[in-house]
């Protein structure tokens, strides 16, 4: 759906070179927003992603390779976005990593990295984006949490702790800005077939001697009653809704799009 609701606005989406972040970035660009991409990957592929968005949606696109575990690099990225486009109107905190292990076996450096990238980075981008949003009395902060921000799963202590933290941080940010034109909300996806999840599918297939399709069904059947993956495009449309005038009183919510996972 192409529109011009976000014409002249700038969206910065962390972890947007693939998966959910790319889906959200594309949906915002389809509404006329200029996009600052961030994430890892092959530089020619990242250039191609930007070019596709420019040509498909007629918007401007830029890229910053900030490592989201490093506050100084996050500061440089936010400064770059402001310099390039004037300000960040829509901030989407999506960068995330995962590690699976039981608590007593969890490598300390993996814990620290997950908390830094999945939780602390959202604090850093938000604190840096808010002054300009307040000056214009308009802003949309969208934190991509997870259904794991609402419920737990074994072997994912750092991820679940970080995502619960994101949901709490979302509520506080929303409350502190409740009297302004700035909203802050969290999206809590269930299983989405991103490169991160495909790795889990592949691992399950090889461990259990299943085909890739069987591994997908097996993964979904454990948690997601619909038996279908959520798509990055669906999450992108939810982000667009959060940016719309219709959502101006949606503040501090953790909105799960999870095929029924958290309803159980």
Automatic annotation (TrEMBL):
It comes from the Bacteria. Belongs to the short-chain dehydrogenases/reductases (SDR) family. NCBIfam families: PHB_DH, PRK12429.1. This is 3-hydroxybutyrate dehydrogenase. It comes from Noviherbaspirillum aridicola.
């Amino acid at each position: 759906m192409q529109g011009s609701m976000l014409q002249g606005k700038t969206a910065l989406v962390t972890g947007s070179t693939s998966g959910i972040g790319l889906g959200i970035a594309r949906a915002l660009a389809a509404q006329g927003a200029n996009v600052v991409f961030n994430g890892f990957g092959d530089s020619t592929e990242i250039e191609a992603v930007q070019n596709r968005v420019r040509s498909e949606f007629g918007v401007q696109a830029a890229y910053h390779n900030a490592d989201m575990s490093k506050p100084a690099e996050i500061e440089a990225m936010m400064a770059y976005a402001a310099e390039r486009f004037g300000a960040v109107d829509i901030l989407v905190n999506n960068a995330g990593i995962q590690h699976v292990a039981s608590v007593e076996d969890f490598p300390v450096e993996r814990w620290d990295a997950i908390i830094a990238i999945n939780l602390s980075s959202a604090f850093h981008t938000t604190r840096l984006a808010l002054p300009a949003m307040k000056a214009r009395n308009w802003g949309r902060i969208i934190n991509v949490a997870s259904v794991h921000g609402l419920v737990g799963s074994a072997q994912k202590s750092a991820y679940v702790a970080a995502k619960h933290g994101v949901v709490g941080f979302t509520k506080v940010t929303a409350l502190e800005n409740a009297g302004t034109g700035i909203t802050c909300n969290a999206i809590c996806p269930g299983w989405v077939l991103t490169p991160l999840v495909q790795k889990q599918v592949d691992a399950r297939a090889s461990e259990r001697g299943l085909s890739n399709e069987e591994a997908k069904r097996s993964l979904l059947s454990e948690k997601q009653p619909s038996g279908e993956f959520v798509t990055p495009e669906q999450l992108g449309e939810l982000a667009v809704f959060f940016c719309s005038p219709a959502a101006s009183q949606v503040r501090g919510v953790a909105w799960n799009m999870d095929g029924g996972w958290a309803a159980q």
